[in-house]
Specification:
alpha/beta; Rossmann fold; 2 domains; 8-stranded mixed beta sheet; 6-stranded parallel beta sheet; 15 helices
């Protein structure tokens, strides 16, 4: 089949979209990724491991104001989709779902809606509780549910793993989406790419605390900076990735924490991410608590765990269930410098030890690839 995926970032690449596109090419499909290059600095067309990437404008800032430019991206993407005439439209996340909805009903194509996050929870991400934020959140929640109901198949990134907390799958089932219509595709690593990476990193001279991913918030990092100031051993904080709050975070570091050893390494190709995990003694994966975080397991949690690197995560979340099940990290209830300092000291003392072998067997992309390919086989059988 000819498959078009849509994503609202420049695809640098987006790890989940990259893995899915690569797997579908491997299964014999023709895959195109239509990406929104908001930065305007990436190739307009590119071939990556068998699939094609088409990047479209307009330029736009990251953050809420991007919504003003989103319709212009929709128009360009819509034209590109019509020209390519796919068998299936596979939209990633809420902000490109409108394209799938439109193509399904205007061109009678099958539509797969792939949900990585609950977008309606983003409006209060740094504590805003204004009437306008609550109203927008409710509107997005209602529209997202409408999209889920009208899609031909719903892919979600998480479900309960048998602990206290539920995932995205349960969120939609409780809102009357048929369970048989939903498939959970976990955002786990391609083990061959992680373990095939040759370790050329230098010996660590400091205890390295890594954050690998998108910087969407600020408040979860301030207590970390304060905790590191109180450590009795030399430590370094390593940021790998970008995000709408990255420049703000850099300004705060320069202004308020110049004495700390903090490195911003920028974005990394998926094939190079393993290098950064190997540099780290611990991965920091604590986010401002909200429903999306409670139902999520960040990709860095899986990636760190399979490489034997302990993780600090939110308590009262699916991530807590994961680190408790595999004894691979520490869940923090209250994000204070004191609690963080204790967690870092415990990990530095090497009292937290775990074997990744059981994690590797279950949480790897080969298992998820089979489920993804099966969805498309079912699509072929219904046409």
């Amino acid at each position: 089949m000819k498959i078009i995926m849509t994503v609202s970032n420049p695809f640098k690449p987006d790890p989940r979209v990259y893995k899915e596109a690569k797997s579908l090419v491997k299964a014999g499909h023709e895959v195109y990724v239509i990406a929104w290059d908001r930065e305007g600095r990436y190739p307009e067309e590119e071939k990556i491991e068998g699939f094609s990437v088409i990047r479209l404008g307009p330029k736009a800032e990251y953050g809420p104001l991007m919504a003003l430019k989103l319709p212009f991206f929709y128009l360009k993407a819509f034209r590109a989709i019509l020209k390519l005439n796919p068998s299936v439209i596979h939209t990633h996340d809420f902000d490109t779902a409108f394209l799938g909805f439109s193509i399904k009903y205007l061109k009678k194509k099958r539509w797969i809606y792939d949900v990585h996050d609950l977008y309606h929870t983003f409006f209060g991400i740094e504590g805003s509780t204004s009437f306008f934020s609550r109203l927008l959140s409710k509107i997005v929640e209602v529209i997202d549910l409408l999209f889920a109901k009208h899609s031909d198949h719903l892919i979600v990134a998480t479900q309960s793993i048998g602990g206290k907390h539920e995932g995205l799958r349960e969120h939609y089932i409780q809102r009357d989406i048929a369970p048989e219509k939903i498939t959970t595709i976990w955002n786990v690593p391609i083990l061959e790419e992680f373990f095939g990476y040759k370790d050329a990193s230098k010996k660590r001279e400091k205890f390295v605390i890594g954050f690998i991913g998108t910087v969407r918030t600020i408040s979860n990092f301030i207590p970390l900076f304060e905790a590191v100031k109180g450590l009795k051993f030399p430590a370094k904080i390593l940021f790998v990735g970008d995000g709408k709050s990255l420049n703000n975070l850099k300004r705060i570091v320069i202004r308020d924490h110049p004495e700390l050893d903090i490195e911003f390494a920028g974005s990394a190709a998926y094939q190079e991410v393993a290098k950064y995990y190997k540099m780290c003694n611990v991965i920091y994966s604590f986010y401002p608590p909200r429903e999306n975080v409670r139902r999520a397991i960040a990709i860095k949690v899986f990636e760190a765990a399979v490489m034997g690197v302990p993780i600090i995560v939110n308590a009262d979340s699916l991530m807590e269930d994961f680190v408790r099940e595999y004894k691979c990290g520490i869940a923090i209830k209250r994000l204070t410098p004191c609690h963080l300092k204790k967690a870092l000291e415990f990990i530095e003392s090497k009292e937290l030890k775990f074997s990744p072998s059981r994690i590797i067997k279950k949480w790897n992309w080969k298992n998820e690839e089979k489920k993804l390919v099966r969805i498309y086989e079912q699509s072929l059988n219904t046409h």
